[in-house]
Amino acid sequence: MKLHLTAKDALLVVDVQVDFLPGGALPVSNGETILQPLNRYIQMFSQRNLPIFFLRDWHCRNHCSFKENGGNWPPHCVADTSGASFHPKLVMPPENRHIVSKGQQLDKDAYSGFQNTELLKLLKEQGIRRVFVGGVATEYCVRATVMDALEAGFATVLLNDAIQGIDLQAGDGEKAVAEMLDGGAFIVSPEWTLTDEKERIALDDYFICTDKALLDFDVILRFISEESYWGKGRTAEVMRKAIDNSTICFGLYQQATPTPVLVGFCRVISDLTVFAYLSDVFVLKEHRGKGLGKWLIRTICEHPCLRDLKNVCLITRTPQFYEPLSFSVLPTTDVRKFMLQKKMTET
Ligand code: VGL
Ligand code: ZN
Q: Which residue has the higher pLDDT, 201 or 130?
């Protein structure tokens, strides 16, 4: 499974501080195991210059959550002490990162990164619609932050390989994960990849990708065999072969969680040197009228493998659609003639 990151994604790194990892004042069990996957996610977001929010527990010296003041916890994450600093093995990129401190109020414990902070405002300002959450502790600050993110309307993805619980009672962490999923969070496990697919071009909620593995075959087959004027009745076997043997297939997707949804398609048969033929071009009805079809064709024609070709050709009943895209019907006065050896009755 692949997740495609877009400009509406942000990463929330929760409380990866010295005191919460082994050796600290309030350590999570096996806390160090999250560092490597988390640093990998951080790298993915920073490579795309997507915003990363580093949340931190930031208490005053006599905070109410400390045992000596009637709270549940040993003193931890006292502001400006070494225990409150981010873990030295956490890689913090220099660009597009934000530090959000929480739990600063003397008489209130605050587990959520949204509680009494600027986090929501900052996310909204950047147009973020989906957040990915990792860090510690699963059943306290991660859980509270995820629940608030869901409440605020963000699609929320839990980075399952990059969280750890305190597990005061065995199973606390697992129980919290179940609650987050119940609440509508999605989960990303190691078998998922956040793809670094280079040939992916985004426009608002949509993106175009040339990865054949990402195509939704059933949607393509249904459209071509039932709705298209040119391919009615095409069988699954023929459609499969046609896709397999096409040189490049372009999927048009609407970004969605947990997986993108295919809403348009075009396959290209080409020698990638001189000639290309575009076939099976469609955009699903509900997504028409937004310029997506034109964007798809333009993206195809500008694709690095195709843009220098001498001849790009297609057959259509709607030439008016392609004319603004620098395609022209061969005029009858042209010495060249478009020829077709037709073996089937319907076009
Ligand atoms: C946390 C306990 C106390 C956390 C913070 O970050 O999960 N847990 N303060
Ligand atoms: Zn705390």
A: 130
